[in-house]
Amino acid sequence: MQAGIDPQQLGLEFGSGAVIGGIVGFAAKKVAKIIAVLVGLELALFKFLESRGIMTVDWDRLTAGILKAGEASQSGTPPSWMTTVLSTLSITGGFAGGFMIGFKKG
User: Fold this and answer.
1) Residue 99 needs a FRET pair 20 to 30 A away by CA distance; which of 18, 53, 77, 106 works?
2) How does pLDDT run across 12-50, given as a tens digit for each residue?
3) What number of other Cβ atoms are within 10 A of residue 23's Cβ?
4) Which residues contact residue 21 at a Cβ distance below 8 angstroms, ignoring those fewer than 6 apart?
5) Is the distance from CB of 80 to CB of 5 less than 8 angstroms?
6) CB 30 within 8 A of CB 106
C-alpha cells in the first residue's frame, strides 16, 4: 500500500528549499541590519533637528502608528496565503530551516 509519495523527490524539494532559505535568511538579516541603522540615524537626525528648533516632531503620533501596526499583527486570524504555504510543506519546511540557519549566521 503506497501513497504515491516519492521520497527522493521530497528530499530534493526539502534540500533545495533549505539552500534557498539559507541564502534568503542570510540576506534578510543583512538587509534588516542596514534598515535598522538607517531608521536609527533618521530618528537621531529628527531629534537633533528638533533640539535646534528647525523641525517639530509629533512623537506621540509617530509611536501610535507603530503600536497600531503591532496590534494588527496579533489579530489571530491566519492570512490567506497560509493555505498555500501548508500545501507546499516539503519545500517550505526546508526553506524555513535554511532561513533560520542563514539568518542566525548572517
Assistant:
1) 77
2) 888 888 888 888 888 888 888 888 888 888 878 878 888
3) 13
4) 94, 95, 96, 97, 98, 99, 100, 101, 102
5) no
6) yes
- Rounded to 5°, the CA angle 83-31-70 comes to 55
Query: Which three cell numbers, joined as nine digits, stand for 48?
Result: 537633533
pLDDT for 3 = 57
Amino acid, single-letter form, for residue 102: G
Q: How far is CA 20 from the centre of its chain?
A: 15
Output the nine-digit C-alpha cell for 9. 523527490
Dihedral sign from CA coordinates of 62, 68, 69, 74: positive
The model's pTM: 0.50
* Grid cell digits, residue 4: 504515491
